[in-house]
Each structure stands twice: as C-alpha cells, then as structure tokens.
C-alpha cells in the first residue's frame, strides 16, 4: 500500500511576513540592513515564526531589529508582492505601533546595521533601489492616509498566549 501523500501535489506557500510602522511625530522608525551585500532600508519586519500570532511577530521583530519595545495600536493592511530579486512571493501583514522603551545596549539581529528615525521625505529620497521593497513606502503612505483598522481585524485561533 502506498502513502496517499506521495501522490498529492505540493501546496504553494508564500512567505508570511510582518512589518511595523512606528511613528514618532513626523518620523518613522526604519532599519538599515545588509541584504545580499547591499545596504537597504525597511520598516522593522520579518517572518512569522511557528507558534506566534502575527501581532506577537510584529512586536518581536521590532524589538530584535531596533531595540525598541512597541505597543501595537492598529492594523494597517495586507500587501502581496513578488520579489524578482529573491524569487519569493510575500504576504505582508503591516501593523502600526507607538514606541515605548528603547534598549540601546541590546544586540540587534544579524544583518542589521542600525535603526534610524526618518521622515517620509527622507525615506522617499533614498530611492527605490535602496528600499528593501516597494512595500516600505506603500505602508507608510497607507498609514499617512489614515488607513487604520482595529487590531482585532487580525486574530489568532486559538488566541496566542497573552492575546
């Protein structure tokens, strides 16, 4: 008898990522990082890990990449993107947060050069080739346009610990 899974087609799975738009006045928390040997700028962002909710992932990635603890305030939206550079399909869940506490002595994730606080104009002036993806300005512009959904728009079932 053969295993039924041997004949089932593989299911395509995009990369599930999170990002956090952290605003302080007219400045946004950005990450300068090395990607394939080049410096790029992004919001604090990364992959969802097993056992965590999207909201937990957003807070974790922000802390790991910037040293900032944040409080999520809103869900901004979902963006779908295909990276021709990496050949990856990305589904990105973007949250908005306010900064709470900075831990400047905290070691940052591998590849992270440093966090920056930048205005939208400064971010746009970097140009498309220095941004990690077009989702960077898309997320900031959605937030600036007032796109803010309740956090319970995105839920984990069963609710993750602490949620």
TrEMBL record:
Its EC number is 3.6.1.-. It comes from the Bacteria. The keyword Hydrolase applies. The keyword Magnesium applies. Residues 13-144 form the Nudix hydrolase domain. Keywords: Hydrolase, Magnesium. Its cofactor is Mg(2+). It is an enzyme of class 3 (hydrolase). Gene3D superfamilies: Nucleoside Triphosphate Pyrophosphohydrolase. It holds the Pfam family NUDIX. GO terms for molecular function: nucleoside diphosphate phosphatase activity; ribonucleoside triphosphate phosphatase activity; thiamine diphosphate phosphatase activity. Belongs to the Nudix hydrolase family. NudJ subfamily. Monomer. This is Phosphatase NudJ. The gene is nudJ.
């Amino acid at each position: 008898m053969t295993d039924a899974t041997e004949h089932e087609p593989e299911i395509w799975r995009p990369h599930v990522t999170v990002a956090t738009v952290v605003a302080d006045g007219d400045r946004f928390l950005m990450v300068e990082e090395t990607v394939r040997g080049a410096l790029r700028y992004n919001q604090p962002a990364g992959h969802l890990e097993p056992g965590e909710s999207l909201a937990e992932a957003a807070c974790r990635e922000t802390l790991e990449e910037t040293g900032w603890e944040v409080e999520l305030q809103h869900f901004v939206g979902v963006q779908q993107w295909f990276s021709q550079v990496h050949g990856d399909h990305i589904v990105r869940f973007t949250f908005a947060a306010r900064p709470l506490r900075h831990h400047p002595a905290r070691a940052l994730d591998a590849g992270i050069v440093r966090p920056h606080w930048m205005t939208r104009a400064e971010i746009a002036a970097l140009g498309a080739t220095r941004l990690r993806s077009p989702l960077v300005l898309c997320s900031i512009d959605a937030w600036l346009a007032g796109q803010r959904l309740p956090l319970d728009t995105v839920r984990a079932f069963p609710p993750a610990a602490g949620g």
